[in-house]
Every structure is written in structure tokens, then in C-alpha cells.
Design brief:
Residues 114-180 form the VWFC domain. The protein has one helix at residues 348-361, and strands spanning 62-64, 71-73, 80-81, 93-96, 106-110, 116-118, 121-123, 128-132, 135-140, 143-148, 164-167, 176-179, 208-209, 212-213, 229-235, 244-250, 282-283, 286-288, 305-319, 325-339. By secondary structure, it is mostly beta strands. The chain has a domain at 189-361. 30% of the residues are buried.
Length: 362
């Protein structure tokens, strides 16, 4: 299965910077700059917050309230605001209390900024709109950023879902998972590809920094079914908000292992075996400075294949014969899933998978 990139338009660096005090934007009067707001009467002496922060709509910032107590969903353009209920600072919004200055309820308004032209329509800075049923966009000082309204989850719905695919549902905008035809048995062996998408997590796709919508794709499946391979992902979680390709080493199972012999009597699979002795990883003649006892994905006797389900990424140091030390990131398996979603001969999905892996190796 191919790992899909999130289809979002990124906030790029803008030619017009926000004011230096924009991170303090809330319910303050930015008109004359000389008027002081009256102290807020909404804040009590102690904080009382929910155990879990609220789930904000796509593109809405999660911010600390004006009392400095709880995280809340920021108010958006045209919504009512107070000194406690702040306007979205990432969109250059402030709370306009109008006159007289002793008003305690205002309206979220955008500071002056460059407008955006999208699809032939002009939008003000700070204005939010839907480009389609799948995306919600925001104009921010001449730059347009969009977040998906549909789930972009490319992972399988469950280990037992055979031949899953995303299909268009009549009357609905977003595609949904569908478990297709019953599985067909495949041959057993460690040569099966790590076909199931790994259940890994990156930064929140709705996370926003100044002029940047941070997003990260899932890690791809390991390029090798045994031995040392690579896994990749794409992210813009960096200082310049630029898309970059990240790579980590991975090993689903050792090539020389005879995992079938480890299956207990009466069992059909060995799902997540761990080495009995510590080992060192080797790449291009360089070996890790430390020894590890990693978990691997096993095999089954009934035609199922076992692939990574939960993983983590850790830094490692490799020491080379010439004394040089290089640092690499490595995938470590937490658990594996054994399932029937295995590629077979003349399978169109298999050819697509290997094409993707070859591209990742380039």
C-alpha cells in the first residue's frame, strides 16, 4: 500500500511580517495604542481546567486563555471575544472592543495585512474560507494555508481487514475505508514485504507556527523484508517551513534467522520475537557503538504475514574502521501484526508497493 502525502497547501514565508508583539495578540485594543483596558473581572484567583484540552476545528489554534489558566480554542474572525476568550493570534486577529473603552465584549478583527486571491476571489488577511468540501483555508497576510477536513489516515483499519481500499461514498465528501473481497492464501516465508502501513504518529497536522502550517506524513514501510533497509517520510517541521525528506534505518527481521523453528507446538505464528542475545547493527562496514536486543516481526504457518504495527525512532551512533563516528536514526519495533493483507504474484498492489519502495531508495 502506498503511503500518501497529506494534500495541504503550506503557509510559506510572507513578505510582510507580523508586528513584533503579535504573539501577545488577544483581546487588546490595537487602534490608538494609548488606551489601556480595564483589568479583567472574568479571571478568578485559581485555575480550574478540564483534564483534557478541547478538540479544535481544523485550522483553529489551541491557545492559553487570557487568564493564563486553561488551553482553549481561539476565537475566529467575526466571533465575539473577551479578555479571557482570546482571538486567534496565528491569524493576526485582535479583539476590537470599539468605544467606549469599558466594554467587555468585542469582535475578532484582522489587523491590516495583504489580501489573498484564491480561485478568483479576494480574501482579507485573517479570513477563513472553504476551497472545497475537503479543505478549509485561511488568508494570512498574502499567503493562503489550507488544512484537510477529511481524515488523511493511510493506515489499515485493522490487521484483519483484507485488501482494504478507500472508496467514494455517495452523498459524502470524504472517502471511507472498505474491506474488499475475502483473502486468498499466499505462500509462507520471510520474503513477504512489510506491506502493512506502520502505526506511527508525527506532529499534529493542524499545528501552526507563525506563517507555517506544520505537517508530517506517516513513515513508509521498510524497504527490505529482511536485513537492514530504510523508511522515509516528508515533513516541513523545520525553521524554514520547507518540505524535506527524512530517512531512518529499519530491520523487520534478520535474514539469517529461522523463525519458523521458534513457533510453539499448536501455534501458527510467532508474532514479535526478541533476540536472546544483544546484537550490533552494521552499515557500510560501520557498527553501532552500543549493543541492542530489538524486537522483530515473525512468520506464520497459515499464509499470514507479520509486519510492524507500532514503532518508535531512536538515534544511534555507528563507528567506522577509520575512527569516524556517524549518527543515524533507527526504527525500533514495539509490536507486530500478523494478517492476510499480503501481496501475491501478479498483484497490482504489490507492483505499486515495490515501485514506491524503489523510489524511496533513490
Amino acid at each position: 500500500m502506498k503511503a500518501a502525502l497529506r494534500e495541504t497547501v503550506l503557509f510559506g514565508p510572507s513578505s510582510r511580517a507580523l508586528p513584533s508583539d503579535s504573539r501577545n495578540v488577544g483581546c487588546l485594543e490595537w487602534g490608538s495604542g494609548s488606551e489601556e483596558r480595564m483589568p479583567s473581572q472574568e479571571c478568578s484567583g485559581q485555575c480550574s481546567c478540564p483534564s483534557t484540552p478541547p478538540q479544535c476545528s481544523p485550522g483553529v489554534s489551541l491557545v492559553l486563555d487570557g487568564c493564563g489558566c486553561c488551553r482553549v480554542c481561539a476565537k475566529q474572525m467575526g466571533e465575539l471575544c473577551t479578555e479571557k476568550d482570546l482571538c486567534d493570534p496565528h491569524k493576526g486577529l485582535y479583539c476590537d472592543f470599539g468605544a467606549p473603552i469599558n466594554r467587555r465584549i468585542g469582535v475578532c478583527t484582522a489587523r491590516d495585512g495583504a489580501t489573498c486571491v484564491f480561485g478568483g476571489t479576494v480574501y482579507k488577511s485573517g479570513e477563513t474560507f472553504q476551497s472545497s468540501c475537503k479543505y478549509q483555508c485561511t488568508c494570512l497576510d498574502g499567503a493562503v494555508g489550507c488544512v484537510p477536513l477529511c481524515s488523511m489516515d493511510v493506515r489499515l483499519p485493522s490487521p484483519d481487514c483484507p485488501m482494504p481500499r478507500r472508496v467514494k461514498v455517495p452523498g459524502k465528501c470524504c472517502e471511507e475505508w472498505e474491506c474488499d473481497s475475502p483473502y486468498r492464501p499466499t505462500f509462507m516465508g520471510s520474503a513477504l514485504a512489510a506491506y502493512r502501513e506502520e502505526e506511527t504518529y508525527g506532529p499534529d497536522p493542524s499545528m501552526m507556527r507563525e506563517n507555517c502550517l506544520v505537517q508530517t506524513t506517516e513513515w513508509s514501510a521498510c524497504s527490505k523484508t529482511c536485513g537492514l533497509g530504510i523508511s522515509t517520510r516528508v515533513t516541513n517541521d523545520n525553521r524554514d517551513c520547507r518540505l524535506e525528506k527524512q530517512t531512518r534505518l529499519c530491520m523487520v527481521r534478520p535474514c539469517e534467522s529461522q523463525l519458523e523453528q521458534s513457533i510453539r507446538k499448536g501455534k501458527k505464528c510467532i508474532r514479535t520475537p526478541r533476540l536472546s542475545k544483544p546484537m550490533k547493527f552494521e552499515i557500510s562496514g560501520c557498527t553501532t557503538t552500543k549493543s541492542y536486543r530489538p524486537k522483530f516481526c515473525g512468520v506464520c504457518l497459515d499464509g499470514r504475514c507479520c509486519t510492524p504495527h507500532r514503532t518508535t525512532t531512536l538515534p544511534m551512533e555507528f563507528k567506522c574502521p577509520d575512527g569516524q563516528v556517524m549518527k543515524k536514526h533507527m526504527m525500533f519495533i514495539k509490536s507486530c501484526a500478523c494478517h492476510h493483507n499480503c501481496p501475491g504474484e501478479n498483484d497490482i498492489f504489490e507492483s505499486m508497493y515495490y515501485k514506491k519502495m524503489m523510489g524511496d531508495m533513490a
